[in-house]
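TASK: fixed-backbone design
INPUT:
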């Protein structure tokens, strides 16, 4: 296993940049192409749980106006080997003070890097150490 191979990090970072561009432009065809095309792919969004590429594609087409504009605050790429990586990203939506988080598991396929699992969330106003979690 080659952990955090520099060329792999550069490649995944480039794909992550292209994903962010497609997200900003609401290019649903490009966004679909970034995800693994099959029932195994999962995307947990801020307000939805999507299983399989068909559900993810349907969500993108149903969302009015696409993803809210956002600024990437921080990105961290960790490569498990030369064919799998995790992209952890913090962002802030325009007009909001809250911080969002996105984690994507990318795998290298014969058709380039694809997202196999994704999770998007918006942070609570206060950490659970200050305000206990609701049951």
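OUTPUT:
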């Amino acid at each position: 296993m080659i952990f955090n191979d520099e060329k792999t990090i550069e490649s995944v970072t480039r794909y992550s940049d292209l994903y962010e561009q497609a997200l900003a432009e609401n290019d649903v065809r490009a966004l679909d192409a970034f995800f693994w095309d099959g029932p195994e792919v999962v995307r947990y969004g801020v307000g939805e749980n999507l299983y399989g590429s068909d559900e993810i594609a349907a969500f993108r087409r149903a969302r009015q106006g696409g993803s809210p504009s956002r600024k990437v605050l921080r990105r961290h790429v960790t490569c498990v080997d030369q064919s799998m990586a995790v992209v952890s990203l913090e962002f802030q939506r325009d007009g909001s003070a809250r911080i969002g988080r996105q984690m994507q598991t990318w795998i290298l396929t014969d058709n380039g890097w694809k997202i196999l699992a994704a999770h998007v969330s918006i942070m609570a106003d206060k950490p659970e150490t200050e305000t206990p979690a609701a049951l």
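COMMENT: The first strand starts at residue 42 and ends at 44.
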